[in-house]
Specification:
heterodimer; A: 404 residues; alpha/beta; Rossmann fold; 7-stranded mixed beta sheet; 6-stranded mixed beta sheet; 14 helices; B: 287 residues; mainly alpha; ABC transporter involved in vitamin B12 uptake, BtuC; two-stranded antiparallel sheet; 11 helices; 74% helix; globular
């Protein structure tokens, strides 16, 4: 072999290697996040967006998403929907039409999520919903939509059983009852409480921006309830807990809020929170967390210099679900195939939440995932996981399938 | 029932005190300069944010942070008058209106950039609760009510008993006559904005300590402030005091005895009813 031939072969090999490595590096999958990054919903939305970015960094560091011989590195574009239906519609339209995004994650809040869900079925895109708990989001049988958080009434049923078991007969409710999923949670609680002869004696309302709850609490105090149930976003709920103590209401306080210790302590003191129950899906707290949960908490805290909100892993898990589905489908372009693959997945090993599979699959026929529910109590500055709230995901899934 | 009424009245007095301070600032500017100062709410919340910053980031005690915030408020008021409103003082009213709207957006944006999107609560360490019979009064609310009363009395004394206060009233009554009487009308707008903004900052601190400050909160308070102005009578100091107190207590009683869902609606219905009977407001003068 002449030296000329050898030189030519080496040059050809070098070019081929350079070209192939360059080609692999250019593979990029852009995913979108539409979530509340500012405003009242940001207590849920911002940690969700952070969680997706963290998952993307982890997946990229581990080599990306493998599709055949290609590795896709994930690029995240996040838009602020302010938990507002119009803003959410605009954000998602921008992601699909301008940025060419096919996979959209996030979605912390029900009003904005429902607005996007109303048209996503007509798009060549896949929507993965996180913290938004309005039941109707997964009753419309939208094939390209799945949700990682269980609906509110699934949890409300378990919460009602727990409250009834505590022997309370007269329960006063104070909450964001003009928001559908909170009302659904309370309805489910009421059904369970009634089975043991209890009743809801008051349904008082606060809005997202309300901070002075003393008028409602004074009214409730006058009714002498056995317990109070607070359903709503973290910030107004924190004011309810604080002002109930200030009004001398020494009765058990139950809630459905999913706020972190840090979020509550911005408004109340630990002493004012002592003994409060949060009856919610078994979300992230260090005492209830699995190995994945503990690692997630540590990584998030290190990366963002703040503790993750309990519900933020719903969005973190979305990206691992998407990765598993794309790898199973063998395509990033065909969203119909990927959406179908999502519904056939078992629970991926990297997820943080403790999902209860239905027939061995993470999502049921409605595109709904279920976690276990838990009773958490504030004890000495921390949410402490006290016990599981028995929940039948299969029975609820069948019930959900009957709804339109 | 009596205890509940008294408790709701106490509940309403604290928020009513905040409304009074906001409305006094607005009525001072409107009555004397004829400007609907929409940015007042956002500037008030800036004062609350500043106090929070001084307490949490600079380690100042609350009692030391409050005078710094009030002094900054006065300075800010002077700047607003000189840079935003003075150039359009002799122009059509619509110009001042547009400046007010623009200023609102600008201050909101500055608050967001400087202090972020998270809600903040000014830590005071006041968590005791006083009990009088069946009525409970949290320590912080009691101090807010007392502080509001002190500020209102100080404002009234200033306006009624000092030469500067008399000059302000003279300009409000009749600007031309005030000039003829030798009042330095050029300095009046500066003084008015300084006082008005300081009152607003005091209200912002109260909101931040009692409840929370967050982007957009100021707009809600300025709407309530204008409602108080109309309820009490445009340009009337006693009207602003009465209007703010009535609005605060009405909201509280309405939420307690009618429906918390329609708390704001009921308060505004009461306002409309009052205006049907007294179109000039509770203490306004008949034109």
């Amino acid at each position: 072999m002449s030296s000329r031939t050898i030189t030519g072969a080496v040059a050809a090999l070098t070019i081929a290697l350079t070209a192939s490595s360059g080609f692999a590096a250019e593979k990029k999958l852009t995913i979108g996040v539409a979530d509340a990054l500012t405003g009242g919903g940001a207590v849920y939305g911002l940690p969700q967006a952070n969680a997706v970015k963290m998952a993307a960094d982890e997946i990229n560091a581990a080599g990306g998403i493998k599709v055949g011989s290609d590795n896709y590195k994930i690029d995240v574009i996040a838009y602020d929907d302010k938990a507002n239906p119009t803003e959410a519609t605009n954000a998602v339209r921008k992601l699909i039409d301008r940025d060419g995004v096919k996979y959209i994650l996030g979605f912390c809040c029900s009003g904005s999520t429902s607005a996007v869900a109303s048209f996503i079925g007509n798009e060549k895109a896949v929507m993965l919903v996180g913290n938004a708990a309005e039941r109707s989001i997964t009753t419309k049988k939208i094939p390209n939509l799945v949700r990682t958080r269980p609906p509110a009434d699934y949890t409300g049923q378990a919460a009602g059983t727990f409250i009834a078991r505590k022997g309370h007969k007269r329960i006063a409710v104070l909450g964001a009852l003009d928001v559908g999923f909170y009302a659904q949670y309370v309805d489910a609680v009421e059904r369970e409480v009634k089975k043991t002869g209890g009743e809801i004696i008051a349904r008082e309302v606060f809005s997202l921006r309300d901070r002075d709850m003393t008028p409602q609490l004074t009214k409730i105090r006058g009714l002498n309830p056995d317990a109070i149930l607070v359903v709503g976003y973290v910030e107004p709920a924190a004011f309810v807990y604080r002002q109930a103590v200030e009004l001398g209401m020494n009765i058990p306080r139950y809630g459905f809020t999913s706020g972190s210790e840090e979020q509550f302590l911005r408004v109340t003191t630990s002493e004012q929170m002592e003994g409060v129950w949060d009856l919610r899906p078994t979300e992230l707290t260090l005492l209830s967390a699995t190995k994945n949960g503990i690692a997630y908490h540590a990584n998030y805290t290190k990366k963002y210099n703040a503790s993750p909100s309990p519900s933020s892993p719903y969005a973190y898990d979305q990206l691992y679900v998407l990765k598993a589905a794309i790898e199973a489908a063998g395509t990033v372009d065909d969203t119909v195939v990927v959406a179908k693959a999502i519904r056939g997945l078992p629970v991926p090993p990297q997820v943080v939440m403790q999902y209860q599979p239905v027939d061995g699959k993470m999502f049921d026929v409605n595109g709904q995932a279920y976690t276990s529910n838990g009773a958490f109590q504030w004890q000495k500055g921390k949410w402490v996981f006290v016990e599981d709230l028995p929940s039948d995901s299969k029975a609820y899934s069948q019930f959900l399938s009957t709804l339109n | 029932m009596l205890i509940e009424i008294l408790q709701q009245t106490i509940n309403g007095l604290a928020i009513g005190g905040v409304y009074v301070l906001i409305a006094l600032g607005l009525t001072t500017v409107f009555g004397i300069l004829g400007i609907a100062h929409f940015a007042h709410g956002s500037i008030s919340m800036f004062g609350g944010y500043l106090t929070f910053f001084l307490v949490t980031s600079q380690g100042l005690p609350v009692l030391a942070a409050i005078p710094v915030a009030l002094a900054t408020g006065i300075l800010l008021g002077l700047l607003v008058e000189m840079l935003a409103y003075r150039p359009v003082r002799h122009a059509n009213h619509i110009n001042a209106f547009i400046v007010a709207l623009g200023l609102t957006m600008m201050v909101e944006g500055i608050n967001l950039q400087l202090f972020g999107h998270e809600q903040v609560v000014i830590p005071t360490g006041l968590s005791r609760v006083f009990r009088f019979g069946g009525i409970t009064v949290p320590e912080l609310r009691l101090y807010v009510i007392i502080a509001a009363i002190v500020l209102v009395v100080a404002m009234m004394v200033f306006v009624e008993r000092t030469k500067t206060g008399q000059a302000i009233r003279a300009v409000a009554e009749n600007r031309d006559a005030a000039i003829l009487m030798g009042v330095n009308v050029k300095s009046i707008p500066l003084i008015v904005f300084g006082i008005s903004t300081a009152l607003g900052v005091a209200a912002g601190i109260m909101v931040g300590a009692l409840f929370a400050i967050a982007p957009g909160i100021g707009e809600g308070f300025v709407v309530k402030g204008f409602a108080v102005l109309i309820l009490g009578g445009l340009g009337s100091f006693p009207g602003a005091i009465l209007g703010g107190t009535v609005l605060g207590i009405t909201e509280s009683i309405a939420a307690g005895f009618i429906s918390s869902a329609y708390k704001d609606v009921i308060a505004f219905v009461v306002m409309i009813l009052v205006l049907l009977i007294r179109p000039q407001g509770l203490l306004g003068r008949t034109p």
